Amino acid sequence: MKKFRIMVVVLLIAVLATACAPVATEAPKPTVVMTEAPKTIVDIAVADGRFKTLVTALQAADLVETLQGAGPFTVFAPTDDAFAKIPAETLNALLADKAKLTEVLLYHVVSGNVKAADVVKLTEAETVAGKKVMIRVEGDKVFVNDSQVIITDIAASNGTIHVIDTVLLPKMDIAETAIADGRFKTLVTALQAADLVETLKGAGPFTVFAPTDDAFAKIPAETLTALLADKAKLTEVLLYHVVAGNVKAADVVKLTEAETVAGKKVMIRVEGDKVFVNDSQVIITDIETSNGTIHVIDTVLLPKMDIVETAIADGRFKTLVTALQAAELVDTLKGAGPFTVFAPTDDAFAKLPAGTVEKLLKDIPTLKNILLYHVVSGNVKAADVVKLTEAETVLGQKVTIKVDGNKVFINGSQVIITDIETSNGTIHVIDTVLLPK
User: Fold this and answer.
1) Is 180 a domain residue?
2) Could you tell me how far CA 196 lies from the centroid of its own chain?
3) Mean pLDDT of 70-93
4) What's the pTM?
5) For residues 179 and 210, is the Cβ–Cβ distance under 8 A?
6) Nearest 5 degrees, angle CA 329-CA 266-CA 250?
7) Which CATH number is 364's domain given?
8) For residue 105, is pLDDT > 60?
């Protein structure tokens, strides 16, 4: 029994020793908190999924690193639907033109971190492209130019994104606008041939009455080809379509004439809801550009030519022109005048006996007298001619005038076309050469 008690006591001491011994515990593990790195403007655009075309454009223009930079930037970001509003051909051309694409993309970027609360206080903002966008508030809607802001204040690590529903296109100059439009291919070709592209890319402002390709198509192909090959004449014609200053349609309709850059006036008239510049109808108005305004017209404006130029361009007066050159009267009939010329056609000269024209071209005094016998001082229109019975010619001899029904005769020659207006007078076409006494 004594041994049993001793064993029980030993066991109790062992149990107590074990219970009282310190318990080894595992060291606590540190808590790891996962945090997402701040996203840049480009990161957000890529991750969002609604800006695939914008991201493609940024890559094509090598602007990804720029918009991943410190900034801060405020980006008006057009969605894929916004880019889809641009014709596919135009968009593809833009993506292939790095310089133009860069300009367009930077036109969507403003320096600084401009929140929506600040945007609505502005009327305009300077973009990184160096051109301003206009900002307006209409009720609860905000527009940048004509593009509506549909989502605001997407925060990025280097700025803010506002989402817009239409791509912002910076205003192009007159030449760029004509090229981009597609309806002015012949006009653009003419501007290039006349070295006037840089002029119409200048500060201006200019107002251009721009003829469409259909307008140029009204000119006979042979005449148009000759015009494109004559730089001096082409320049005069093109500048006849340009007025200095920015003249909107509301101002055009108040005018009766306008001085062109060519130094010659165009006549302006309003007929009901139609506006005409000379005899060309204005079909589209107020296309705004960065350096002026374009009004589209349906007929090419041709400045009035002088009497000699008109005779040359007409094509029915080759013999008369040859005679004027031989008699050294070209400069006279290109002068200020005004003159009224009774102009015989080639058929009229052909009525003369065979060999007469050749003889006259060698007898300059006689030829000169004959030609001056066809010219009257002053600008005498058909309505005035029919009131006369005679007229004093520049030669000093008179011609007789007779009205017979609806026919008018100068001596014995019939007037077959009247009132061809020129810059220095009027031409009436006759069917027989007038011969002085």
Assistant:
1) yes
2) 13
3) 90
4) 0.60
5) no
6) 175
7) 2.30.180.10
8) yes
22/24 Cα distance (integer angstroms): 7
Asked if 127 and 199 sit in the same domain, the reply is: no
CB 211 within 8 A of CB 301: yes
Report phi then psi at 94, rounded to 5.
-65, -45
Q: Which of 297, 316, 336 is the last residue of a domain?
A: 297
- In whole angstroms, how large is the CA radius of gyration of the chain? 41
* 412 three-state secondary structure: coil
3-class secondary structure for 345-375? Answer: CHHHHHCCCCCHHHHHHHCHHHHHHHHHCCE
Same domain, 158 and 263: no
- Domain interval for residue 145: 41-164
Task: Work out the pLDDT band at 347, boundaries 50, 70, 90.
Answer: very high
Give tens-digit pLDDT for 390-436: 999 999 999 999 999 999 999 999 999 999 989 899 999 999 999 99
Asked whether residue 49 falls in the same domain as residue 84, the answer is: yes
pLDDT at 294 (0 to 100): 96
Using CA atoms, how far apart are residues 425 and 406, in angstroms rounded to an integer? Answer: 24
The whole-angstrom separation of Cα 151 and Cα 116 is 9
Strand partners, 63: none
How large is the average pLDDT for residues 181-185? 89
- Largest CA-CA distance found in the chain, in angstroms, rounded: 182
Residues whose CB falls within 8 Å of the CB of residue 153, separated by 6 or more in sequence, listed in order: 115, 116, 160, 162
